[in-house]
Amino acid sequence: MRPDSESGRRGEAEHPLVHIFADESCLGNQFEGRRNPGAAAGLIERFDARRGWHRRDFAHFDPDTTNNRMALVSGIAGLGALKRSCRVVFTSDSQYLVKGMKEWVHGWARRGWRRKGGPIENLDLWQELARAAARHRVQWRWTKGHAEDVKNAYADHLAVTAARERRSTGGLIPSAFETWLAEAREKERFLDFLDVPDGAFEADPQPPPVPPP
């Protein structure tokens, strides 16, 4: 075996490839002057060639929040649940989250965590997310919401359910993805979906800046 192949295998073992599909929900955004309950939730999965899929779900409920805050919490909760440094493909339909982590945070950090137009909205969560992401090599992917992306649809289901039922999972729990998919297929949805691993990974060239403590 060539030395570069050996180092590549060691890197894969030391930093396993994990996919996180996350979404957010906020109920009652159309109303003013009232509390808007919401949730952040997602699916974390890893494929093992011998054992197959290893999947877990997470959900975090907030009694009064916004979609943007829950998008950031989905990143904090998802990345924070990983016990070791990983290569992570993080998929979300939130442009606010994905564009923010790929572009905005770097400019904010250069300006001392400020932006030209004034204070940074949700600065506390942006900085917490940057700290969580710094432990991993992350590829941030955007997907169009409500566009038959199966795992994004499942993450949306988790977030909406958690918001409506006003509950958090309190960490990772066994995933119900396979059951949810079977039920969806009974309704003739996602019939063409193949549950095969996606091994493509390319970490974003600029890791997130770590904010001061």
What this model shows, in words?
This protein is α/β, with parallel strands linked by helices and 213 residues long. The chain is built from six helices and six strands, in the order αβββαβααβαβα. Strands 5-4-1-2-3-6 form a six-stranded mixed sheet, sandwiched between helices. Helix 2 packs parallel to helix 4 (123-134). The longest helix is centred in the middle third of the chain and has 16 residues, at 95-110. It starts with a helix and ends in a 27-residue tail after the last helix.
Features:
213 residues, Nucleotidyltransferase, domain 5, 38% helix, disordered N terminus
**What is the straight-line distance between the termini?**
44 Å
Along the chain, the helix and strand elements come as: HEEEHEHHEHEH
Number of helices, where a helix is a run of at least 4 consecutive DSSP H or I residues: 6
CATH fold annotation = Nucleotidyltransferase, domain 5
SS strand fraction: 15-25%
Query: What structural category arises from helix and sheet content?
Result: alpha/beta
What value does the Rg take, in angstroms?
18 Å
Sheet of most strands: 6 strands, mixed
Count of individual domains = 1
Shape: globular
What is the gist of this entry?
The chain is an alpha/beta fold and 213 residues long. The chain is built from six helices and six strands; from the N terminus they run H-E-E-E-H-E-H-H-E-H-E-H.
Q: What's the arrangement of secondary structure elements?
A:
Elements: H1 3-14, E1 17-26, E2 38-48, E3 52-62, H2 67-80, E4 87-92, H3 95-110, H4 123-134, E5 137-142, H5 150-165, E6 173-174, H6 177-186
Parallel strand pairs: 1-4, 4-5
Antiparallel strand pairs: 1-2, 2-3, 3-6
Helix pairs in contact: 2-4
